[in-house]
Specification:
With 216 residues, the chain is an alpha+beta fold. It is built from three helices and twelve strands; from the N terminus they run H-H-E-E-E-E-E-E-E-E-E-E-E-H-E. It has two domains: 38 residues, no CATH class; 174 residues, no CATH class.
Length: 216
Amino acid sequence: VVITLTVGFIVTVAFVVAKKPEIGVAVALVAIVLCGWFLRSVVDVRAATATDHTYERYFGIDSYEEDGVVKFRNIAVATGTFTLGTWISASLYHVNGGDVQEFNAFTVGRSPNRIGAPHWVDMKITLALGDRDTSEGRVTQLGSAGQSRGGGRCGEMTHNVVASASTILPGRFTSGTKRIVYVEGDSGFKVSSAMTVAEFAVQNKGNYLVVELELH
């Protein structure tokens, strides 16, 4: 980034001195655009594997002793270089017969309370689903581990999804990307890496749990 700005500045000045300011302005704009591209947030999402650590607790997943043990299952891992302005938002939805209901959602990232921390920090955030049986039925919530800061909203809605099919949609997220990363349900479904939850609900009329991710 520094090299790009320096070269852009030198070339811009050279064209201005040569009485070609319009070219100098164009070069400066190109340098600024390139810097923005280099500084953009990029996070890669992959499927969780058996080697990924299962944590005792996940942010976003409630645990009550009277309801018994929560069964955690990792579904995806997001890795990338985070600034204080890089955030991941994740939401769990129940899609049933084309109707969409949010179960819980949160936004996680880096804590600003670490004096001397570098501008860029490599982070690995694990996404998981937590299932527990209650007197009202089965509750599933989405959670995460590996972040140092977060906030969200929780739900206690029950559901009757019996998963016979599931899929993870890995890929690279840049700032502003918002799409589905995980689906499980009681029947087959159509889903793509560019699909939002609303689009999924239109094309699939079964009973599903859907996880949507957005990078800020």
